[in-house]
């Protein structure tokens, strides 16, 4: 069915007017991270109706950096892209259960995956979706010999660990059948196909737009890209009336940026936004006390940590130093006093609701005497200094990054370590840490697929060949061929790596779980990170919103949302 051109034309004409309402920015709460948007204001949109159009406004702490699923690791990008792109297999809203997406049926037997594709789906550019689109999507992401491969510096670290490391060949059998031959048995594969990084791109768009897809996305999803006002950090999408799934119930969605947590909550309360995320302790109180909004919460599937860059800082190559720092930092105070109960202490890479969580591991308690003793044993009793890189903008796994960094600085000062805080905006920060320029850094991770491999392998396995490793050394260079830049610790522990690799090849759930429990123990004992916290998922939602489902995986599912 042809798209309703009149409706789209109307939305284009009224979009600027709908976005004209300015949300007054106020000074950031001293207990919250961020500073409000540039020049003290956040350019946003009015919510509800504009003429005959309904606009849903989603306010967040940071603008996107790219809208190409193959060019980003950022959750800020993902929440926008998930409105415009679909995957072959998808997650049920608010659950970790798989459901049909652009594939209606699938099977994984040994090392062969077969999928039957959905017929009658069109991309936003009018092209019909076929198996050849996924073949082109796969090649663009993983094959340097492909004519339209955008380059190693453009494709994200997701390419190898999502698809490239596991898939030897993808072939189309007609327009609606796909066969994928894996290089080995790989237990998380079907869940990987549901990740945002496996979003299906249009072959024609790949050929026509190249790397400009980061600014002009073309998917099959429930919303269509309209415009991106980067100066005001605002992205506008319109409803896809031809969507194959559950059609949107609003005419357009606008993503705006309000950097301060508290200001964002006040914006929700005053009606300047319909949904907000990135909520810290103080902001959650604003929402809870609002007569116009409610706080929605759910157990998260995430982790927050402080990583040691072992390649750059020689002291961090000594396990005693890493453990000393882990004992010195008061993570209990972090979660109780700074995060004020919206998170719990971490002891290992995964949270308790993920397969392989080791209940026998406790968080490191603060023990300054033990910390000092370990530094003395390592030969660093007189202390040393290092940089702690962090982000300005709040994240769900670290809603108050500056306060958290100040706590670390204070705690480590008690054992003679000098910490220099380097705070950056989120997108430059990601570039900085993925290139290994940091000494130590705060980071975190929202699961892409609720599988333990998405933590253990994605974040702490270097993903390099054996010849890139040095005997007797448990770290590797960021410059190593094929290095996984999500492993910002540069950690390369062979015993850990072997367990994670074995777990990938194990289809028996119980046996797989035991391998991850062992890997968790090694990670805890070796301490490539200071394990900080696992946070609740919090959203502020206007009482005019109906149908919102909080989704720790994928989402937000804004096509389900309507406005009263």
UniProtKB/TrEMBL annotation:
Pfam families in UniProt: SBP_bac_5, TAT_signal
Any one of the GO CC terms: ATP-binding cassette (ABC) transporter complex
- Segments of skewed composition (Polar residues): 52-77
In terms of InterPro entries, this protein maps to: Peptide/Ni-bd, SBP_5, SBP_5_dom, TAT_signal, TAT_signal_bac_arc
UniProt xrefs under Gene3D superfamilies: Dipeptide-binding Protein, Domain 1, Dipeptide-binding Protein, Domain 3, Periplasmic binding protein-like II
- Superkingdom assignment: Archaea
Family, similarity comment: Belongs to the bacterial solute-binding protein 5 family.
Q: Which NCBIfam families match?
A: TAT_signal_seq (TIGR01409)
Q: What is this protein called?
A: Peptide/nickel transport system substrate-binding protein
């Amino acid at each position: 069915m042809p798209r309703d051109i009149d409706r789209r034309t109307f939305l284009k004409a009224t979009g600027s007017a709908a976005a004209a309402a300015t949300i007054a920015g106020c000074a950031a709460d001293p207990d919250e991270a961020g500073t409000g948007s540039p020049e003290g204001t956040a350019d946003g949109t009015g919510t509800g109706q504009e003429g005959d159009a309904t606009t849903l406004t989603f306010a967040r702490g940071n603008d996107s950096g790219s809208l190409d699923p193959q060019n980003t690791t950022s959750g800020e990008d993902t929440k926008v892209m998930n409105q415009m792109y679909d995957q072959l297999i998808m997650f049920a809203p608010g659950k970790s259960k798989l459901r049909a997406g652009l594939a209606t049926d699938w099977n994984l037997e040994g090392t062969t995956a077969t999928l039957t594709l959905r017929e009658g789906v069109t991309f936003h550019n009018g092209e019909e979706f076929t198996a050849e689109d996924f073949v082109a999507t796969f090649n663009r992401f993983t094959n340097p010999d492909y004519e339209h491969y955008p380059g190693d510096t453009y494709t994200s670290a997701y390419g190898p660990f999502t698809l490239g490391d596991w898939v030897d060949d993808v072939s189309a059998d007609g327009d609606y059948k796909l066969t994928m031959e894996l290089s080995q048995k790989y237990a998380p594969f079907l869940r990987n196909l549901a990740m945002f990084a496996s979003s299906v791109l249009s072959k024609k768009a790949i050929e026509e737009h190249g790397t400009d897809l980061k600014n002009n996305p073309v998917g099959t999803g429930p919303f269509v890209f309209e415009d991106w006002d980067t100066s005001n950090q605002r992205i506008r999408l319109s409803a896809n009336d031809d969507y194959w799934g559950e059609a949107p119930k609003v005419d357009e969605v606008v993503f705006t940026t309000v950097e301060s947590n508290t200001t964002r909550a006040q914006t929700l309360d005053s009606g300047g936004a319909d949904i907000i995320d990135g909520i810290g302790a103080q902001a959650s109180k604003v929402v809870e006390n609002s007569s116009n909004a409610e706080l929605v919460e759910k157990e998260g599937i995430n982790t927050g940590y402080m990583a040691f860059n072992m390649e750059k800082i020689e002291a961090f190559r000594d396990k005693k130093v890493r453990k000393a720092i882990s004992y010195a930092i008061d993570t209990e105070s972090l979660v109780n006093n700074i995060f004020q109960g919206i998170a719990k202490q971490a002891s290992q890479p995964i949270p308790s609701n993920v397969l392989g969580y080791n209940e026998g591991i406790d968080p490191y308690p603060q023990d300054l005497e033990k910390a000092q003793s370990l530094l003395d044993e390592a030969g660093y009793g007189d202390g040393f200094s290092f940089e702690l890189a962090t982000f300005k903008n709040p994240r769900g796994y670290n809603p108050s990054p500056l306060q958290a960094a100040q706590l670390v600085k204070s705690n480590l000062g008690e054992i003679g370590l000098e910490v220099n805080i380097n705070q950056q905006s989120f997108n430059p920060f990601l570039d900085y840490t993925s290139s290994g320029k940091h000494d130590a850094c705060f980071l975190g991770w929202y699961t892409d697929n609720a599988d333990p491999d998405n933590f253990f392998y994605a974040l702490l396995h270097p993903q390099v060949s054996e010849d890139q490793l040095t005997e007797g050394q448990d770290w590797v260079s960021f410059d190593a061929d094929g290095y996984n830049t999500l492993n910002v610790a540069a950690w390369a522990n062979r015993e850990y790596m072997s367990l994670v690799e074995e777990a990938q090849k194990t289809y028996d759930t119980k046996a797989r779980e035991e391998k991850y429990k062992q890997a968790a123990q090694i990670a805890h004992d070796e301490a490539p990170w200071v394990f900080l916290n696992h946070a609740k998922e919090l959203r502020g939602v206007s009482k005019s919103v109906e149908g919102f489902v909080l989704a720790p995986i994928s989402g937000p599912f804004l096509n389900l949302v309507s406005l009263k």
